[in-house]
From TrEMBL:
Record-linked Gene3D superfamilies: 3.10.50.40
Signal peptide location: none
Keyword Isomerase: yes
Protein name: peptidylprolyl isomerase
PROSITE patterns: FKBP_PPIASE (PS50059)
Keywords: Isomerase, Rotamase
EC primary class: isomerase
UniProt organism field: Trieres chinensis (Marine centric diatom)
EC number, UniProt record: 5.2.1.8
Residue ranges the record marks as coiled coil: none
Amino acid sequence: ATAAAAAVAASSAPQSALAAPEILNTSNGVKYAITKPAAKGAVVPQKGDIVAIEYTGYLTSGQIFDATHSEGKKNALLFKLGSDVVIPGLNDVISYMAVGEKVQAIIPPSLAFGDEGICIESGECLIKPGSTLVYDVLLKKSSIPPP
């Protein structure tokens, strides 16, 4: 009886915790997975809204190249959604997010730093030309801009 009860309990256990996250796509080609869903009814920002995000940017090798919470940085990044303060891929994926949601986004070179990368005059590059980037992004806040 104990074995039968264990078998029934195991078969009724939720399997979603073991499932891989669903990979979504923006209309511009950013692939992303929701790693922390937003609360029901959370605000989705519109172009022109002021948003606050926390993020970590990685190369595909896993090396971190930037983060809002790295040493010396304790604040979220505030910017107008749709502006050129961030790369186009971040604007794109954030426009699909709701406040409180966390995603991991894979941003193609065309929506990141393209064929230029981030290089200094000596030719050394923090982000090589043609690099695909990975970002963990948390949308903390969104508000309409003042008139």
